[in-house]
Amino acid sequence: MNPVRLDTVSWDVSRGRTLGPAPFFVVGILNVTPDSFYDGGHAADVDAAVAKGLALLEEGADILDIGGESTRPFSEPVPADMELARVLPVVRGILAVRPDAVLSVDTTKASVARACLEAGALILNDVSAMDVDPELLQVVRDFHPGYVLMHSLGRPRTMQVEPRYEDVMAEIMRFFEAKLEILVRSGVSESRIALDPGIGFGKTVEHNLEILKNICKLFKFGRPVYMALSNKSLWGELLGRQGRERNAATLAATVALFEKGVRIHRVHEVREIRDGLTVAHMLGKGTSGEQGC
């Protein structure tokens, strides 16, 4: 693993596809849960979710990340059959209209991941790093999806109960080093892996800011960084903003992180984030040096 700053991003995913190279990827969030913190569950039924997903693609989403189980702090897990009933019809519905769409399934469960990958999803976004369901490793070996490896401290139900670190960045670095070694030894190609530091997953405001300020340290692994900070409670605690009032903070942080070299951004507001990243990319063309790092 050589230290690199990724000026463009390519990502090997399922079915022999490679995404990119591109200056960035925008991942549109499609929650199909009744308790989404952002949209109040407005896409909780299949038809509404499919329509929302197609709209996000039209707005410029490179990838749709579809989730049927809330992972917000203090949320309760849902049974696999319930999660699958929420997600699988949406995967099928979107691909029936847009067979070229790049879909990601946000799940910790092997059965849900397998069914959605069989249906045509190309990426697995796993907030548990396979700690909830070890059978996920076999699913990744069978389907070779793009895989988002995320750091968290505990499960959603308990992760925000007094999270503590001696050195948050050092512990995250050791986590990724160990997990990447396990994946590679198991036959998973590094070219399929993106790294998510898990903003808000078992971190205080101070921890989150420390991670964002030092995000360049993750480039030593030679893998793209996948950033999911859209409208997180971090912005509420810093600015006193709620819901869509956090859009400006999300956009500002996303552009700042892009200028540091972060290339994959998971967001709620696709059009405005894509516009911001496009402007930042155009303004940065022709510059020299390691901006921000």
TrEMBL record:
It comes from Desulfomicrobium baculatum (strain DSM 4028 / VKM B-1378 / X). It comes from the Bacteria. Catalyzes the condensation of para-aminobenzoate (pABA) with 6-hydroxymethyl-7,8-dihydropterin diphosphate (DHPt-PP) to form 7,8-dihydropteroate (H2Pte), the immediate precursor of folate derivatives. The keyword Metal-binding applies. One of its GO terms (cellular component) is cytosol. It catalyses: (7,8-dihydropterin-6-yl)methyl diphosphate + 4-aminobenzoate = 7,8-dihydropteroate + diphosphate. This is Dihydropteroate synthase. Belongs to the DHPS family. Residues 24-278 form the Pterin-binding domain. The keyword Transferase applies. Keywords: Folate biosynthesis, Magnesium, Metal-binding, Transferase. Pfam families: Pterin_bind. Its cofactor is Mg(2+). GO terms for biological process: folic acid biosynthetic process; tetrahydrofolate biosynthetic process. Its EC number is 2.5.1.15. One of its GO terms (molecular function) is dihydropteroate synthase activity. SUPFAM superfamilies: Dihydropteroate synthetase-like. Pathway: Cofactor biosynthesis; tetrahydrofolate biosynthesis; 7,8-dihydrofolate from 2-amino-4-hydroxy-6-hydroxymethyl-7,8-dihydropteridine diphosphate and 4-aminobenzoate: step 1/2.
